[in-house]
Specification:
The protein has 186 residues and is mainly beta. Helix content is 4%, strand content 33%.
């Protein structure tokens, strides 16, 4: 996607200054554990400043607020513990605002994988940052319960997997617990 709002992975380099959340310094790494006190290293558009369980809630960091007035559609998405509602979304290509409410008890994010399919994981079951970067994944960073956060993107036609890779307190990415769905942009 050739959008200025599309956040892209670039190995371990910081791509966008997105608001970190939680109890430890986080530079936008994919997933982290509060026990380790640091991020897994690097930037990810689809890994975010996710506060793991016990770290405290992450704050909302809206994406593309300057484009909201140009949005041709607003889609409401509810994040709960390990589910999206709706989990299958359909929109027309263009500038789309996602109004995302976290009604769960944990931090959650809304990440997008262009081309659809399964979210790539590494041998340890963690998100595969290199594969996500290559695929051009992007996200609305993780934010805590009882918050609503908006993200506005210019979306091209295609299929996208929507997912959350914030880790549970046991270290499992939410996507492996069923928190993924599909966005069809026509």
């Amino acid at each position: 996607m050739a959008s200025t709002l599309t956040l892209r992975f670039v190995g371990l380099a910081l791509v966008a200054g997105l608001l970190p959340g939680g109890c430890a310094k986080d530079d936008g790494a994919a997933t982290r554990s509060c026990d380790s006190g640091s991020a897994a290293g690097g930037s990810s558009a689809a890994g975010g400043s996710s506060a793991a369980a016990g770290c405290g809630p992450a704050e909302c960091s809206p994406v593309g607020p300057d484009l909201e007035s140009d949005a041709t559609d607003t889609v409401q998405v509810t994040l709960d513990d390990y589910t999206f509602d709706p989990s299958d979304l359909r929109v027309a290509a263009g500038t789309i605002t996602f109004e995302v409410e976290n009604v769960g008890t944990e931090d959650h994010e809304l990440a997008f994988l262009p081309g659809g399919g399964e979210v790539p994981l590494d041998d340890e079951g963690a998100p595969d940052e290199a594969a996500l970067a290559e695929a051009g994944a992007f996200e609305l960073e993780a934010f805590g319960p009882d918050q609503t956060c908006n993200a506005t993107y210019e979306l091209e036609a295609g299929t996208y997997t929507i997912f959350c890779i914030v880790e549970t307190s046991e270290g499992d990415p939410h996507t492996t617990k069923g928190m993924q769905g599909e966005l069809l942009v026509s």
